[in-house]
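WARN no homologs supplied; continuing
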Amino acid sequence: MKFKLIGIFTAVALLGACADKAATSGAATGSGATSGTAGVTPGSQQDLVANVGDRVFYSLDSSSLDGDARSTLNRQASWLARYPQSSIQVAGNCDERGTTEYNLALGQRRANAARDYLLARGTSSARITSVSYGKERPTALGSDEQAYAQNRNATTSVR
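OK structure emitted
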Protein backbone atom coordinates (compact mmCIF):
# COMPACT_ATOMS: atom_id res chain seq x y z
CA MET A 1 0.00 0.00 0.00
CA LYS A 2 2.82 2.38 0.92
CA PHE A 3 4.58 1.79 -2.37
CA LYS A 4 1.40 2.44 -4.36
CA LEU A 5 0.94 5.80 -2.63
CA ILE A 6 4.57 6.74 -3.19
CA GLY A 7 4.22 5.78 -6.86
CA ILE A 8 1.08 7.87 -7.25
CA PHE A 9 2.67 10.92 -5.60
CA THR A 10 5.76 10.54 -7.77
CA ALA A 11 3.65 10.36 -10.94
CA VAL A 12 1.63 13.43 -9.93
CA ALA A 13 4.83 15.35 -9.14
CA LEU A 14 6.34 14.46 -12.51
CA LEU A 15 3.20 15.48 -14.38
CA GLY A 16 3.06 18.72 -12.42
CA ALA A 17 6.67 19.50 -13.34
CA CYS A 18 5.90 18.93 -17.03
CA ALA A 19 2.88 21.22 -16.86
CA ASP A 20 4.90 23.99 -15.18
CA LYS A 21 7.57 23.84 -17.89
CA ALA A 22 4.95 24.05 -20.67
CA ALA A 23 3.20 26.96 -18.98
CA THR A 24 6.39 28.99 -18.65
CA SER A 25 8.01 28.11 -21.98
CA GLY A 26 6.32 30.99 -23.86
CA ALA A 27 4.71 28.54 -26.27
CA ALA A 28 1.32 30.24 -25.98
CA THR A 29 2.52 33.79 -26.48
CA GLY A 30 2.39 33.76 -30.27
CA SER A 31 5.66 35.66 -30.29
CA GLY A 32 6.49 34.73 -33.87
CA ALA A 33 9.50 32.53 -33.24
CA THR A 34 10.57 30.81 -36.46
CA SER A 35 12.21 27.68 -35.07
CA GLY A 36 10.56 24.31 -35.63
CA THR A 37 8.30 25.31 -38.52
CA ALA A 38 8.96 22.20 -40.59
CA GLY A 39 5.69 20.66 -41.70
CA VAL A 40 3.66 23.83 -41.08
CA THR A 41 1.15 24.50 -43.84
CA PRO A 42 1.71 27.95 -45.39
CA GLY A 43 -1.24 30.26 -44.73
CA SER A 44 -2.47 28.21 -41.74
CA GLN A 45 -3.01 29.21 -38.12
CA GLN A 46 0.18 27.35 -37.22
CA ASP A 47 2.09 29.35 -39.85
CA LEU A 48 0.74 32.61 -38.46
CA VAL A 49 1.70 31.71 -34.89
CA ALA A 50 5.13 30.31 -35.75
CA ASN A 51 6.29 32.93 -38.23
CA VAL A 52 4.41 36.12 -37.45
CA GLY A 53 2.78 36.06 -34.00
CA ASP A 54 -0.93 35.79 -33.36
CA ARG A 55 -1.45 38.27 -30.54
CA VAL A 56 -0.72 41.76 -29.39
CA PHE A 57 -0.75 42.91 -25.78
CA TYR A 58 -2.19 45.97 -24.08
CA SER A 59 -1.58 47.96 -20.93
CA LEU A 60 -4.09 47.97 -18.09
CA ASP A 61 -7.40 49.61 -19.07
CA SER A 62 -6.02 50.50 -22.50
CA SER A 63 -6.74 49.73 -26.13
CA SER A 64 -3.77 51.74 -27.44
CA LEU A 65 -1.23 49.93 -29.60
CA ASP A 66 2.39 50.22 -28.46
CA GLY A 67 5.46 49.73 -30.66
CA ASP A 68 5.60 45.96 -30.09
CA ALA A 69 1.92 45.62 -31.00
CA ARG A 70 2.35 47.67 -34.19
CA SER A 71 5.38 45.57 -35.14
CA THR A 72 3.39 42.34 -34.75
CA LEU A 73 0.45 43.80 -36.67
CA ASN A 74 2.79 44.94 -39.46
CA ARG A 75 4.00 41.33 -39.77
CA GLN A 76 0.38 40.13 -39.75
CA ALA A 77 -0.52 42.61 -42.52
CA SER A 78 2.40 41.34 -44.63
CA TRP A 79 1.37 37.74 -43.94
CA LEU A 80 -2.22 38.52 -44.95
CA ALA A 81 -0.97 40.12 -48.19
CA ARG A 82 1.04 36.95 -48.89
CA TYR A 83 -2.01 34.71 -48.29
CA PRO A 84 -5.01 36.55 -49.81
CA GLN A 85 -7.23 33.47 -49.45
CA SER A 86 -6.99 33.66 -45.65
CA SER A 87 -9.62 35.41 -43.55
CA ILE A 88 -9.11 36.19 -39.88
CA GLN A 89 -10.94 36.94 -36.69
CA VAL A 90 -9.45 39.33 -34.14
CA ALA A 91 -10.62 38.59 -30.59
CA GLY A 92 -10.21 41.16 -27.82
CA ASN A 93 -9.52 39.85 -24.34
CA CYS A 94 -9.12 41.27 -20.84
CA ASP A 95 -7.83 40.18 -17.48
CA GLU A 96 -10.26 39.10 -14.76
CA ARG A 97 -10.50 42.47 -13.03
CA GLY A 98 -13.50 44.70 -13.73
CA THR A 99 -17.12 43.98 -14.47
CA THR A 100 -18.27 41.74 -17.28
CA GLU A 101 -19.80 44.70 -19.13
CA TYR A 102 -16.68 46.85 -18.81
CA ASN A 103 -14.40 44.04 -20.00
CA LEU A 104 -16.63 43.19 -22.97
CA ALA A 105 -16.48 46.83 -24.08
CA LEU A 106 -12.72 47.07 -23.50
CA GLY A 107 -12.15 43.78 -25.32
CA GLN A 108 -14.11 45.11 -28.30
CA ARG A 109 -12.03 48.31 -28.34
CA ARG A 110 -8.87 46.17 -28.31
CA ALA A 111 -10.11 43.95 -31.16
CA ASN A 112 -11.17 47.01 -33.13
CA ALA A 113 -7.80 48.72 -32.60
CA ALA A 114 -5.96 45.71 -34.03
CA ARG A 115 -8.51 45.30 -36.85
CA ASP A 116 -8.35 48.98 -37.77
CA TYR A 117 -4.55 48.87 -37.87
CA LEU A 118 -4.66 45.91 -40.28
CA LEU A 119 -7.26 47.69 -42.41
CA ALA A 120 -5.04 50.77 -42.57
CA ARG A 121 -2.22 48.51 -43.83
CA GLY A 122 -4.30 47.35 -46.79
CA THR A 123 -6.17 44.27 -45.58
CA SER A 124 -9.70 44.10 -46.98
CA SER A 125 -12.49 44.54 -44.43
CA ALA A 126 -14.22 41.50 -45.98
CA ARG A 127 -11.37 39.33 -44.63
CA ILE A 128 -11.51 40.50 -40.99
CA THR A 129 -14.10 40.05 -38.27
CA SER A 130 -13.74 41.13 -34.67
CA VAL A 131 -15.22 39.88 -31.42
CA SER A 132 -14.80 40.56 -27.73
CA TYR A 133 -14.55 37.81 -25.16
CA GLY A 134 -13.91 40.21 -22.30
CA LYS A 135 -12.55 38.20 -19.40
CA GLU A 136 -14.32 34.96 -20.37
CA ARG A 137 -11.43 33.27 -22.24
CA PRO A 138 -8.21 33.81 -20.30
CA THR A 139 -4.94 32.81 -21.94
CA ALA A 140 -3.08 32.46 -18.65
CA LEU A 141 -4.57 31.17 -15.45
CA GLY A 142 -3.78 33.00 -12.25
CA SER A 143 -4.55 36.15 -10.36
CA ASP A 144 -1.20 37.92 -10.51
CA GLU A 145 0.27 40.63 -12.72
CA GLN A 146 2.04 38.12 -14.98
CA ALA A 147 -1.24 36.34 -15.78
CA TYR A 148 -3.10 39.65 -16.11
CA ALA A 149 -0.54 40.92 -18.64
CA GLN A 150 -0.92 37.77 -20.79
CA ASN A 151 -4.71 38.07 -20.73
CA ARG A 152 -4.81 41.70 -21.92
CA ASN A 153 -4.56 40.91 -25.64
CA ALA A 154 -6.06 40.78 -29.08
CA THR A 155 -5.61 37.38 -30.69
CA THR A 156 -5.74 36.79 -34.45
CA SER A 157 -7.16 33.48 -35.68
CA VAL A 158 -7.26 32.19 -39.23
CA ARG A 159 -10.83 31.36 -40.32
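The domain at 45-158 is CATH 3.30.1330.60 (60s Ribosomal Protein L30; Chain: A;).
OK
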